[in-house]
TrEMBL record, chains A, B:
This is Homoserine dehydrogenase. NADP(+) binds at L9, G10, F11, G12, T13, V14, G15, K16. Belongs to the homoserine dehydrogenase family. GO terms for biological process: methionine biosynthetic process; threonine biosynthetic process. Pathway: Amino-acid biosynthesis; L-methionine biosynthesis via de novo pathway; L-homoserine from L-aspartate: step 3/3; Amino-acid biosynthesis; L-threonine biosynthesis; L-threonine from L-aspartate: step 3/5. It is an enzyme of class 1 (oxidoreductase). NCBIfam families: PRK06349.1. Coiled coil: none annotated.
Length: 443, 443
């Protein structure tokens, strides 16, 4: 059977990785897919650089800067989009779909923001848009959610889905350094970009968990409803106190089915140290999925890099090869649920979510203040799970004694704890702002 | 669209679990699959018991003892086989295939032993035989290997794929009890069967790793070539010494691509404690897959039980619903590789495998014997990675000093270490047999 012809948009890390893996493992891939899969055309901005990257293959594979011509090329069966961003990538993907071509993309921002438009266009035209590489690199988490766990009512998903921030959090904990130092190290070692905003402020993780929430719960992608908090404000003392209490702090993307809607949030989170996911260190990714039949499952691996990402892109290409002959209305739906069966369950505002909390506060007079704090919490039905009181130290010229108190609460609604915190901060004996972090038992 | 009609063979743990999950989540499943999936006929030996288990549904779903009539029933679209074993199950599965029905099964023994016959019959007839539930319960590891990692040349797989033995090993380590006590506890708690042979002697794990090896490397299932060793001879002192050296002992199913063939083996294995898989405790399962592009990935969850297994069976049913319209020659092949592309790479005899080793020996005179032992190892190019020498203790009426020495070696071929052990055991100062365990760095 004739090889499937791939048009590659972009030849950066992911584009070149895809090219390399397809070429190196072409025989193995053909034994699996039943036919060859070949890159037959490449469109890039920097043609000379791509040609240099292709080496000897430059003589064989046409490279130019005309991406529109590529998606219009009748000799291209599948378009692989590795440009990134939501501008030109969106236009090219939609144009490829209109031309009846299947599309494979690693572009999480594009799908989290414009997913509904893209998937609708693809359903109408009867083509596949595959995006395993958009979440957790080479870990087949999209496939697990969309196909492997279809028997389940998914209850929640929680994932370490940004390697940069996990690398930073690991170094903060293991080496006791502060955020700025850990970030600088990550940048030096190539784990963080020169402008790390998207990673450290949680935006990248929010794109990914938005996509997973849609697949898990059968709702449209709604990035604008996600609550997004990064790790740049995280104090290393909280990592230490959490450790003393038996917890690790991870940046989690969480999607949870609650009684009145869906929680969709990214923030630093305390997790019990004994949980498997708490032990995912460095730039590695892991996603825990809780389903009503299967219970808790976990998927772990490299979340970024040329070859792990290419692994997912090429798996998608093999999937398209295997499944493109299936009746489009029967075939695996883009978001796991049939387009006409998507639900309008609302995404809850962050005030309405339910969580346990870690509170750190600086107090002047422990005995007096503890009674006041516990009363404020009890008035709001917030019970305390654990309390850590550090030895007091002398502060300032007057030699007053001050100390840190750390409280872990049981579950409550977020607006409740915020209300309690406002009251606690108003106490005379409490110095400065209360630090509040969310906590998940992952049970 | 009309519902797909399922004929259920057997109504034990897995059969009833499948029925329950299909019923409870029918709406969610229909939203995903695009059509309903309904059990319309059940065949069991104990009809009265099944009717009792069905409760009110007994009035609606026909139950009888005629399994042949079920697989011949033109109104049944998919046969779910939950009988187990390799006798009648094999006959019924083959008959269903001949009748042009798709088959879903959780029967690892059947596929590990008769897989080639069954898959060939299914390919010839153009039907799907799905078996996600055969390995690691609800964890979609078959899907990950067969579809999620198709870009990769798989290098090795190592899995904790038997919950009973992992539960026993966890209690031996955590509570310091011996094998017999841990087994008795596991039986009392329902984690081990009255006759636990298949689990504790590694046979169940060998069935599962045999299936995974075929999918990973594109070879036929060859259970008779697997090396199978269980945990019943494991001494709790080795668990303790391993712990002191930074290792945990797990019963692993290992399939590895070596230079001259494939290693296929089940045995107790030392793994560095810091590896994620070393921290998989109790009855949980986990599989690590190493691919050349993706690197190391891990899949974790419950490996047994009614609902986790049903989760996989129902996911297979949804898969069949989604994919049965695809061209059979294009569709996902049963063993990941196209039937005509299976390779005849041999499974290596256990003597030919490469591993690191843990050796424990009882010696009378440490100084003299250590020189002898290291020379025996050095003569065979086996280098020592670590050595643990326990304080000596007085033994016997004569009051001689004896002590345990534990050695960890670097990698060598198994016949090499066996040869060295024979020489070591022949030394005067070495008392009794040398305990030898295999060790994997999981890198």
């Amino acid at each position: 059977m004739e090889s499937l012809k791939i048009g590659l948009l972009g030849f950066g890390t992911v584009g070149k990785g895809t090219y390399d893996v397809l070429k190196r493992n072409q025989e193995e891939i053909k034994r699996r897919a039943g036919r060859g899969i070949e890159v037959t055309r490449i469109a890039v901005r920097d043609v000379a650089k791509a040609r240099a990257g292709l080496g000897d293959d430059a003589a064989r594979v046409p490279v130019d800067a005309d991406s529109a011509a590529l998606v219009d090329d009748p000799n291209v069966d599948i378009v692989v989009e590795t440009i990134g961003g939501t501008g030109i990538a969106r236009e090219l993907v939609l144009r490829a779909i209109r031309n009846g071509k299947h599309v494979v993309t690693a572009n999480k921002a594009l799908l989290a923001v414009h997913g509904s438009e893209i998937f609708e266009a693809a359903s109408t035209r009867g083509v596949m848009v595959a995006f395993e590489a958009a979440v957790a690199g080479g870990v087949p988490i999209i496939k697990a959610l969309r196909e492997g766990l279809t028997a389940n009512r998914i209850q929640w998903i929680a994932g370490i889905i940004n390697g940069t921030t996990n690398f930073i959090l690991s170094s903060m904990r293991e080496r006791g350094v502060d955020f700025a130092t850990a970030l600088a190290d990550a940048q030096r070692l190539g784990y963080a970009e020169a402008d790390p905003t998207f990673d450290i402020e949680g935006v990248d993780a929010a794109h990914k968990v938005t996509i997973m929430s849609a697949i898990a719960f059968g709702v449209p992608v709604q990035f604008d409803r996600a609550h997004v908090e990064g790790i740049s404000a995280l104090n290393s003392i909280d990592i230490r106190y959490a450790e003393e209490l038996g917890y690790r702090i991870k940046l989690l993307g969480i999607a949870r089915r609650a009684a009145s809607g869906i929680e969709l949030r990214v923030h630093p989170t305390l997790i019990p140290s004994k949980r498997l996911i708490a032990n995912v260190e460095g730039a590695m990714n892991a996603v825990v999925v809780q389903g009503d039949a299967v219970g808790s499952t976990l998927y772990y691996g490299k979340g970024a890099g040329a070859e792990p990402t290419a692994s997912a892109v090429v798996a998608d290409l093999v999937d398209v090869t295997r499944l493109h002959t299936a009746d489009p209305h029967n075939r695996v739906p883009h978001l796991a649920f049939q387009p006409e069966s998507l639900s309008d369950t609302p995404i809850l505002p962050i005030d309405e979510i339910t969580s346990s909390y870690y509170l750190r506060l600086r107090v002047a007079d422990v005995t007096g203040v503890l009674a006041n704090i516990t009363r404020i919490l009890a008035d709001r039905d917030i019970s305390i799970e654990a309390l850590l009181q550090k030895e007091s130290e002398e502060v300032g010229a007057a030699g007053r004694n001050e100390t840190d108190i750390v409280l872990l609460t049981h579950e409550t609604v977020e607006k409740n704890i915020n209300d309690a915190i406002a009251k606690i901060e108003a106490l005379d004996t409490v110095k400065g702002a209360v630090t509040r972090l969310r906590m998940e038992s992952m049970n």
